[in-house]
Amino acid sequence: MPVVVGSGFSPAPAAGAAAADAAHDALAGLDGAACDLAIVFVAGDLVTETSEALRVVHEILAPGDVVGTTAGGLLAGGQEHEQGDGVAVWAIALGDGRAEVFELHATEVDEGIALSGLPAVEIGVTSAMVLLADASKLPLEATLQAFEEHLPGVPVIGGVPSLVPPDGRPLLRGSGSSSAAAVGVRFEGIEVLPLVSQGARPIGPELTVTAGEGAVIHQLAGRPAIDVLRDTVEALGDDDREQIQHGLLLGLVVQPGQPEYGTGDFIVRGLAGADPETGAVVVGAPVSVGQVARLHVRDPTTATRDLEDALALRRAAVGGGSIAGALAFTCNGRGREMFGHDHHDADAIQREIGPLPLVGMISAGEIGPVGGRPFVHGFTATVAVFLA
Hints:
This protein has helices spanning 15-30, 50-61, 140-150, 225-234, 238-244, 300-318, 335-339, 344-353; strands spanning 4-10, 37-43, 66-71, 73-76, 79-81, 86-93, 98-109, 112-116, 126-133, 156-159, 171-173, 176-177, 182-188, 192-197, 200-202, 207-213, 216-220, 223-224, 249-253, 266-275, 280-283, 292-298, 323-331, 358-363, 366-370, 373-377, 381-387. The protein is α+β, with helices and mostly antiparallel strands. The protein has 8 helices and 27 strands.
């Protein structure tokens, strides 16, 4: 049996009415198939009415399970609703596949933080995971590292809520709010293609980390990191130096040993700090000696081209098959602020791989794989493409 996805969105000013409109549209998209899982996103002032939204979704879709979150903005169809009230519903009938919902809880211990709730799975069976994470309760980078060790090679796609309701519980599970640090869905028996578009362009020469530990780079190419980065910036052209004024970014190669490195081979991070006395710089990702680094700039032209290219690759990967639907998580720093017009990412997804049922949220951090490893990102468009 094929995978079928339905989706819906409503900006109605009451959670029950908005959820009803969205759920009915999602139900119609399922075309008679039973809903195995519903994912619900609630935005704007409606975040105080999530229980009512979930009650209505259960009533209309009768899903096997429900997860979701609150958000500052939503994606639905080919549009992005960056502000305002709304409910978006994404429903999937898995055919011969399976979905297992899990909740992660983080507990402080002497050695740091212990995670409980990781799904016990057989390697080679899980095809993908969707993760909605409350970053205030969870060390997200360490959690994703645990996922990589627990399920190597399994893509993890998701996001961090960009709007937290007054009760402090943005995550949804079943019929109400969840106290978990993260809620997730583990899929098996279906095919999911992950996509991460970082929208950053490498500039300047490749540089090798010759001394560093943790998230600190002490030396690049045998010299203090600050000095090397300063010299690299001074050697750039005027256009690139102007782009750097919006924030200095550093990309770190995830999978070494390739003959050359392109845009998708780097995990891109902003510089989080520097020590002029030692010449060290701090980046938002772990580094290792011998790792290749390169300066990056972020600009709308690069971001557009990068997203279109990534989507085209997924379309090619589908071949003669068909796409059932997609989930999208885009940064709250993108949208109109970055591109100067509305609906940039949603429109690109529909144009390149649609038309298809599409729902998602504007996030305060996006989760997706680079080089086969899961990371948390900023300023990205991250998409999970579900094949029929």
